[in-house]
Amino acid sequence: KSSILKLESVKKYYPIKGGLLKRVQGHVKAVEDVSLEMFEGESLGVVGESGCGKSTLGRTVLGLEPVTEGKVIFREQELQHLSERNRLPFKRQMQMIFQDPYASLNPRQRIGDALEEVFIMHTKLSSKSRKEKVTELLKEVGLKEEHYDRYPHEFSGGQRQRIGIARAIALNPSVVICDEAVSALDVSVQAQVLKLLKTLQSKYGLTYLFISHDLGVVRYFCDRVMVMYLGNTAELATAKQLYENPLHPYTKALLSSIPRPSIERNRKRIRLEGEIPNPANPPSGCTFHTRCPVASEICKQKKPVWRDMGDQHYVACHHVEKGREVL
Ligand code: SF4
Ligand code: MG
Fold first, then answer.
1. Which of 41, 47, 65, 294 has the maximal Cβ count within 10 Å?
2. Superkingdom of this entry's organism (predicted)?
3. Is the dihedral of CA 51, 54, 57, 63 positive or negative?
């Protein structure tokens, strides 16, 4: 498979300003160091507790936020230094689906008009072809032509998410970032929307960056999964590898916390001590050392680097072997 999107040591820091003069007093390290390569047509899950930087990562990839350091490369083209104008053609290529599409819809605007706006802004299509496009889009996402004239409040949560999807795919993007895209929906509706996303993926060869705190959904939906903790990547593997053979202590803890039948039943429950540390003042060395059951002295001093475990499995931990024995 060919590479479509590459992140090289991406960092995203937010300045903390304080005092009368609003001087910068420090930084929240939302994304500390993420390197990643995505392949055309895959679904890559990004998981981790809230505040681990996964949403920030999505927004940075999309260019909604400038990177502090590092590279975002889309098909050989570095995006991070492009001006707003030069970024435009790439913006069409990468779209986002949010958790709550209602928040981004104007309550007084008919859905058809909201969708048509995308074509007004980005294409030179005539009014007639725009309307045809919108009708096509509505059908594509499982809605009906007569929904054109309805207002956002007339739709259910699942239908609104379909509208969000319609808007995201309107301009034929290559990459779609789903940020908790089904998290607000009931389980049965979730399944339908996920199925729609899969159908669209195989029809248009879409690549998904699927950000979610729901490990069950990610397992079902994604080909590969990346685990983040406090702005850092802890582990990256195929979904099968990650769920059946997790290597990072944090991944093990995350997985052990979901009640599941079958293979995870005999997995030991790992309780993490303490809270997630403040990202403005992250722990030294491995940022997970304050909560890790197998941490040692070196973990406090040295940040672990990616270890290639073979079979597309990567892990950032000093004590993979020890973790295997103990956890
Ligand atoms: Fe735990 Fe050390 Fe591995 Fe970090 S590097 S996950 S603290 S064992
Ligand atoms: Mg989030």
1. 47
2. Bacteria
3. negative
Beta bridge partners of 207: 175
Which of 191, 222, 253 terminates a domain? The answer is 222
Decide if 8 is inside a domain: no
Q: Which atom of ligand 1 is nearest to the CA of 250?
A: 6
Ligand sitting nearest the alpha carbon of 212: 2
Please identify, by atom number, the ligand 1 atom nearest to the C-alpha of residue 296.
2
pLDDT at residue 295, as a whole number? 95
Is 247 close to ligand 1, i.e. is its CB under 6 Å away? no
- The verdict on 127 and 155 lying in the same domain is yes
* Residue closest by Cα to atom 7 of ligand 1: 289
Q: What is the dihedral angle through the alpha carbons of 155, 157, 162, 163, rounded to the nearest 10 degrees?
A: 50
- Say if ligand 1 is within 6 A of residue 286 CB: yes
Task: Tell me the per-residue pLDDT of 283-324, one tens digit each, with 9 for 90 and over.
Answer: 999 999 999 999 999 999 999 999 999 999 999 999 999 888
What ipTM score was computed for the predicted complex, to two decimals? 0.96
- Report helix angle 157-169 to 111-122, nearest 10: 20
| Residue range(s) defining the domain that contains residue 136 | 36-67+84-222
* pLDDT (tens digit per residue) in 177-203: 999 999 989 999 999 999 999 999 999
- From 204, 222, 240, the end of a domain falls on 222
